[in-house]
Specification:
- Helix content is 17%, strand content 35%.
- By secondary structure, the protein is α/β, with parallel strands linked by helices.
- It has 2 domains: 7-58, 2,3-Dihydroxybiphenyl 1,2-Dioxygenase, domain 1 (Roll); 66-122, 2,3-Dihydroxybiphenyl 1,2-Dioxygenase, domain 1 (Roll).
- The longest helix is centred in the first third of the chain and has 11 residues, at 20-30.
């Protein structure tokens, strides 16, 4: 018997952040995501058919970037690895790749969440 549950995709991933405005600026202005809807403490972003939700923690709460979710992989339309890498580095972001894979770059957002950028397959 086939399960009645069939996942068709990822709707959104939630990241806890210390400063919602800083995180929103990074994801919208730098990575090019679009705001779907937001409130004073949360912002839902769209990137294609998937989404990222940013939830601001209380002042006394800590963010544990990298320990709640290992990373989120984002597919790019650009296949210019060197230009993408230079853009990140020029913004002061430390990057690293994966040995033997010239199509991916890893880096961290301002709250320590690891992101991966994937270049299109040639």
């Amino acid at each position: 018997m086939e399960s009645p549950l069939k996942v068709s995709g990822i709707d959104h991933v939630v990241f806890h952040v210390k400063e919602l405005s800083r995180a929103k600026k990074f994801y919208v202005d730098f990575l090019g995501m679009e705001v779907d809807h937001e409130s004073s403490w949360q912002c839902f972003l769209k990137c294609g058919r998937q989404g990222v939700a940013l939830f601001e923690v209380e002042d006394n709460e800590e963010v544990h970037g990298g320990s709640e979710v290992n990373h989120i992989a984002l597919r790019l339309t650009s296949d210019d690895y060197q230009r993408v890498k230079a853009t990140l580095e020029n913004a002061g972001i430390e990057v690293h790749g994966r040995p033997g894979d010239p199509r991916c770059i890893y880096f961290h957002d301002p709250d320590g969440h690891q992101l991966q950028l994937l270049m299109p397959k040639e």
